[in-house]
Amino acid sequence: MFSKILVIGAGTMGAGVASQFALKGFSVTVLVRNEDKAIRLRSDLEKLIKRSLKRMQSEETQSDILAKINIVKELENDVGYDFVFEAISENISQKKQIIHDYTDFITENTIWATNTSSLSVTDMAAGYKYPENFIGIHFFNPVASMELVEIIPSMLTSPSVVEKCWEFCTLLQKKPVRVEDSPGFIVNRLLIPMINEAVEILSSQVASAEEIDSAMKLGAHHPLGPLALADLIGNDVCLSIMEALYTATSDSKYRPSYLLRKMVSAKKLGRKTGIGFYSY
Q1: Mean of the pLDDT values across residues 46-70?
Q2: From the candidates 19, 133, 154, 188, which is the catalytic residue?
Q3: Tell me, what's the pLDDT at 77?
Q4: Distance CA 19, CA 64 (A)
Q5: Which residue of the set 138, 154, 196, 240 is catalytic?
Q6: pLDDT band at 42 (very low <50, low <70, confident <90, very high)
Q7: Architecture of domain 187-272
């Protein structure tokens, strides 16, 4: 399948995806910006792999899996990666810059996959040297336990690339769905506006966070209430997706809640900062 995999991005999604690649037998290089990021990534990978091995009841050891992951701060010029998975923050300007910056490390056969949850894949593909090899692959958090992967070809993506990425996701024991390149794709176009509306209900003092979440769990059989889910996803991520939906459609139903904006400004991002709509 792929022999030289590069993951760009050492955050939640980058670590989650890299660990799953290694757990399925693939050797992976992960590019980080500095030593502090490398130290944090190693710690995150150790925790993720330990949990996954326990759940899988595998005979492989944590050391076996970690040995398949090479963390680097710079790339070697003579390595032609056949699969690049970019998982940086949800900012199209930054994603385009990454594509530009690492052009020298790709070949005409390199598939470049962006892990976007709402941005235009076609817009990014247009700036890639080989646009027919550019595709969106949206994993969900936590990567280890979420089965779904949205596969998003751009208007320029080759059918053979779609097929190869579908096969790759299947090898990772994920369940892919094909989605046309459109704002928010499927899940986030449905899910994030619901979360935004829950924030509006809270802002309007219709109900407390606990009451809103309890109502959705008991009345709609959701395993997690929308505000607790926002804290899990990250309120900054929710805001970014709402802004992308609003920018792409100019539809007022996608206007981000003012309270959500304030939460992000106050760094109340959810679980990753220890406080959001709830304290952790």
Answers
A1: 92
A2: 188
A3: 75
A4: 12
A5: 138
A6: very high
A7: Orthogonal Bundle (1.10)
State the average pLDDT over residues 151-161. Answer: 98
Residues carrying CATH 1.10.1040.10, the chain: 187-272
CATH 3.40.50.720 domain range(s) in the chain: 5-178
111, containing H or E segment: strand 106-114
pLDDT of 247? 94
- Out of 52, 120, 150, 196, the active site residue is 150
CATH superfamily of 5-178: NAD(P)-binding Rossmann-like Domain (3.40.50.720)
Nearest to 202 by CA among 117, 268, 251, 273: 268
Instruction: List the catalytic residue out of 19, 52, 115, 117.
Output: 117
Task: Say if residues 20 and 172 touch (Cβ distance below 8 Å).
Answer: yes
Q: What's the whole-number average pLDDT of the chain? A: 95
pTM: 0.90
Widest CA span in the chain: 60
150 annotated active-site: yes
